[in-house]
Amino acid sequence: MAVFTRPRQAFVIAGALGLALSATACGTGGNDDSNDNAGSAECAAYEKYQGNDGKKVSIYSSIREIEADRLEQSWKQFEDCTGIEIDHEGSGEFEAQLGVRVDGGNAPDIAFIPQPGLLKRFADGGKLKAAGADTKAMAEANYPADWLKYSTVNGTFYGAPLGSNVKSFVWYSPKMFQEKGWAVPESWDDLIKLSDTIAASGTKPWCAGIESGDATGWPATDWIEDLMLRTQTPEVYDQWTTHGIPFNDPKVAEALDRAGTILKNEKYVNGGFGGVKSIATTSFQEAGVPITTGKCALHRQASFYANQWPEGTKVAEDGDVFAFYFPAIDPAKGKPVLGGGEFVAAFADRPEVQAVQTYLASGEYANSRAKIGDWVSANNKLDLANVPNPVDKLSVQILQDKSAVFRFDGSDLMPAAVGAGTFWKGMISWINGKDTASVLSEIEGSWPK
């Protein structure tokens, strides 16, 4: 997974680099002005990007440390075979500094932008360059339309997605389920029946935590977004994130109250930590850990939570922990999927920049990065055989499922004052006992006029 600036995704994955990139040797390094092996068999896949030997392309993102190393591995063969040098810089202050750089006339050639709202802001300001015809064609061939609309502003397409994550997951212990004779639920009703069964056994079924420093509250917003997708149509979800319906609309209240049947139910939460109010003070990193000690059975969190388990925890279908799809209320009506990711947007349109942008939308790139490990993409050319991590494999299967209806994280689509402000804060108040109507009315009142 990418290390994003937003706290819901901002964690550093520790550990070894995992699988090495299998095919990286084309003879010359990305920093070499010569490109002697461009015509070699290993470089055949990169013929369409030739003609830019010795050129440099700068990329700015929030991806740091081990993940940045993996990025550099993933495009090394492209550099070697094309002679284009990619200069990547990752920053923990990406969102704030990107604006400063752009406004100061020091924009990077390319930025990996994880918030569609931020991408739109730069597009509306005339700062972004429209994606070239090759990039657009590659993206349309390799990504579902549900994804491409998030980097399309006023009819202009600005860049393909890169990495992705799936948020519609519930974590559990396969061993515990097998010992107890519990089955993975296929519907919301099944999930509630399972929760009742677990509660009756003397174990709190759910553990949860929404503490995240200055960003405390964000994990609860993901619950509401997932329930909006399950109680309403995708079109209503879109209206909600764009303020086509008010934040205190009865449809939003229905989703919040549905989430409350779990999160505000003292019989259900908060295994290993306390009662309902302990959710507000339990860190999201630690929230699922009681599953490993049998103190709770279920934890709703995104695919990236695979990296939060204690060292030595086996994450697999037959392991200590694994995840299942957060079930729909009516599975017959489709498979709603909540997720996130980043988009490859360009502030320059030189030929070498367009070549990099096109390559990053390709199946060759997706498979190159996937082989290194700990990465998910909605690219439909990604071969599951190249995805080593079991949860990542499950995520890709969900993203490639033709019945899936994908929607981007709602708070990332909303104005920052709401999505990263009053929505987060409102969820804290709600967990601490404030009623649904009051919380939603306060958030509605904060929406920029």
Descriptive notes:
Belongs to the bacterial solute-binding protein 1 family. By secondary structure, this protein is an alpha/beta fold. The protein has 2 domains: 41-165 and 338-406, D-Maltodextrin-Binding Protein, domain 2 (3-Layer(aba) Sandwich), CATH 3.40.190; 169-325 and 415-446, Periplasmic binding protein-like II (D-Maltodextrin-Binding Protein, domain 2, 3-Layer(aba) Sandwich). 37% of the residues lie in helices and 13% in strands. The protein is built from 17 helices and 12 strands. It has helices at residues 65-74, 76-82, 94-103, 116-124, 133-142, 145-148, 174-180, 188-200, 218-231, 234-241, 250-263, 351-360, 363-372, 390-400, 410-413, 416-431, 436-446, and strands at residues 56-61, 85-90, 110-113, 152-153, 156-157, 161-166, 169-172, 204-206, 296-300, 322-325, 335-346, 404-408. The strands form 3 sheets. Strands 1, 2, 3, 6, 11 and 12 form a 6-stranded mixed sheet that branches. A 4-stranded mixed sheet has the order 8-9-7-10. Strand 4 (152-153) and strand 5 form a beta hairpin. Helix 1 crosses helix 13 (363-372), helix 5 runs parallel beside helix 12 (351-360) and helix 9 crosses helix 16. It is globular. Residues 1-34 have low confidence and may be disordered.
Short summary:
With 449 residues, the protein is α/β, with parallel strands linked by helices. It has helices spanning 65-74, 76-82, 94-103, 116-124, 133-142, 145-148, 174-180, 188-200, 218-231, 234-241, 250-263, 351-360, 363-372, 390-400, 410-413, 416-431, 436-446; strands at 56-61, 85-90, 110-113, 152-153, 156-157, 161-166, 169-172, 204-206, 296-300, 322-325, 335-346, 404-408.
